[in-house]
Design goal:
The chain is of the alpha+beta class. The protein is 45% helix and 25% strand. The strands form three sheets. Strands 1, 2, 3, 4, 5, 6, 7, 8, 11, 15 and 16 form an eleven-stranded mixed sheet that branches. The longest helix is centred in the C-terminal third of the chain and has 44 residues, at 234-277. The chain crosses the membrane at residues 251-275, 295-317, 323-347.
């Protein structure tokens, strides 16, 4: 819930979602493909890339199996055919992706915006913050296909982006390897660091200066004999995130109210029962010079000690200190309110009643 809510605000802050679109490509009944379709994709990509009316960025998720990286806990288990392998998550990004999400480095530099793949040269990579414990700038590592990568930078801690087309919310980049994109191939999704126009377009987001400029892109794409090109508004994704957040908040509040009612009822019953069962002990306190205020404080201290322990544990396990503090203060006030029936019952009793009561 929190992740989607954060994504909604993050996305709205990054750019005007009403003027942003992502592309989904749906195959027509009769698949044609070939050079004609490749040219349409190339024309569409080039028109967007070279025209000042548009700002496009892309992010393509993948995994690479690294042979010689120092031992670390950042690799994840992924399926590869019938077996599973340990691989490191990568995110191939265009230069505008870095600018739109305002990514920052702790050291080094980002890869060159005009980077092009060359088979005998290293691919420059920017590593997530967590990799800084295991590698340094200018380190080179190799994947199982003998492709070499050179570390040119490290991201600052806590860098994130929003997955626009899938609406998955805010995604952290601490454990991710960023690689540049070179759109040069068509028939393969991923070959030697190069991406097809099709893969790029399906993972791209286009920001327009004027919403009506989307018509020019539709005019290019309409000649396709293979796909229907759908230009979907990012505003719909933001709406989905907002609606999903509101629904989650509603469910959360409903459960929270039930828990508060249940917990408050238990506190009231237990404190009233505590007073009933400990009249003789209270009478001893009164003989010793205590007042009903002292007895009331003793009742509240039992609840306060439990609250204090939970507050300390919450501070230890959570990094949201201000939220923990705010919620804890509210809970303490609720506990105090739940004790009121017991306090009222206690103060209505006459001292003589307390002294005469037996367990």
């Amino acid at each position: 819930m929190y992740k989607k809510q954060e994504a909604f605000y993050h996305l709205s802050k990054a750019f005007d979602t009403s003027n942003a679109f992502y592309i989904s490509m749906v195959e027509k009944e009769e698949f044609v493909g070939g050079e004609h379709e490749e040219n349409i994709m190339k024309d569409l990509y080039t028109y967007i890339d070279k025209n000042d009316k548009y700002i496009s960025f892309a992010n393509i998720e993948n995994y690479i199996e690294i042979k010689d990286i120092p031992k670390n806990s950042l690799s994840v288990e992924v399926e590869q055919g019938p077996s599973k392998i340990l691989a490191n998550k990568t995110l191939s990004v265009s230069p505008n992706f870095i600018n739109v999400f305002d990514l920052s480095l702790s050291q080094g530099e980002f890869f060159d915006a005009s980077w092009e793949y060359v088979s005998d040269k290293n691919i420059p990579v920017v590593l997530g913050y967590s990799y800084a414990k295991y590698m340094d700038i200018d380190d080179v590592f190799t994947d199982v296909d003998n492709q070499k990568y050179k570390v040119v930078g490290f991201l600052q801690d806590g860098q994130t982006f929003v997955d626009v087309s899938f609406g998955e919310g805010v995604i952290g980049l601490n454990d991710v390897i960023l690689t540049p994109i070179d759109v040069t191939t068509f028939y393969n999704l991923f070959v030697d660091g190069n991406y097809a126009y099709e893969t790029y377009l399906e993972n791209s987001t286009i920001i327009l200066k004027n919403r009506n400029d989307i018509k020019e892109l539709r005019d290019i794409a309409k000649h396709s004999k293979t796909y229907n090109y759908n230009f979907n508004s990012v505003e719909g994704v933001s709406g989905y995130m907002e609606k999903s957040t509101q629904e989650s908040v509603g469910v959360f509040l409903f459960l929270l109210i039930l828990i508060i009612i249940f917990a408050s009822t238990l506190v009231i019953i237990n404190t009233l029962e505590f007073i009933r069962k400990n009249m003789r002990e209270f009478s001893i306190h009164i003989f010793g010079g205590a007042t009903k205020k002292h007895i009331a404080l003793r009742i509240f201290l039992q609840i306060f000690i439990v609250w204090l322990l939970s507050f300390i544990i919450s501070l230890i396990i959570s990094n949201q200190n201000f939220i923990v503090l705010g919620v804890s203060v509210v809970i303490l006030l609720l506990c105090l309110g739940a004790c009121l029936p017991s306090f009222i019952t206690l103060f209505k009793l006459q001292i003589s009643d307390i002294l005469r009561r037996k367990e």
